[in-house]
Specification:
This protein has about 180 residues and is α+β, with helices and mostly antiparallel strands. The chain is built from six helices and seven strands.
């Protein structure tokens, strides 16, 4: 620690450190400022969407998904897409999230790993709230504490606790009502 402190106290090193920190701060600010563009699902991006969805799920829940990618694609096309409106979030043409929601519920909402806490999830959630019938419900796994904090900050309240048999994990049902 002493060596680091002494090195950083040398004039050239202090300036280099200050410059690096300033550049990191500007990069962080720049990444937080732009709003993602929400677009309708595009089939040509299915592979990218499923890869991003899986990685985000695995990090958030802390479980390796054992299902083959082809099975997850089939599930998305056969179950998620027909029952929901799907919007993809893009930043500089990079897929950074997606939301699948009906007028009553949110089936899926995922943000790319490394892109959380930039307002992308909030933006997608705002879209789901706007197109809702005035209330929404959703499930998240109890071990996904980041998702719990996010939904609670955004006005969702715990409605029930349960168990999801496919994944063999405890889950939480959240509900939101549009303020009168």
């Amino acid at each position: 620690a002493r060596r680091r402190r002494r090195a950083s106290q040398q004039p050239g090193n202090r300036e280099a450190l200050r410059s690096r920190l300033s550049a990191q701060w500007e990069n962080a600010r720049g990444m937080a400022d732009p709003r993602a563009t929400l677009i309708d699902f595009q089939a040509v991006r299915l592979d990218e969407l499923v890869a991003m969805w899986r990685a985000s799920f695995e990090v958030g829940v802390g479980v390796k998904d054992p299902h083959p990618i082809a099975e997850q694609k089939h599930y998305f096309l056969a179950q998620v897409l027909p029952r929901n409106s799907v919007r993809m979030a893009l930043l500089a043409d990079q897929l950074v999230g997606f939301v699948a929601a009906s007028r009553e519920s949110i089936a899926q909402l995922y943000v790319r790993v490394g892109c959380q806490r930039r307002g992308i999830g909030r933006q997608m959630l705002a879209w789901a709230k706007e197109q809702s019938a005035g209330g929404l419900w959703l499930y998240t796994f109890a071990r996904n504490e980041g998702a719990q904090r996010f939904y609670e900050r955004e006005g969702f309240r715990i409605a029930a606790r349960g168990f999801e048999p496919t994944w063999r994990l405890e889950d939480i049902k959240y509900e939101w009502q549009r303020p009168l």
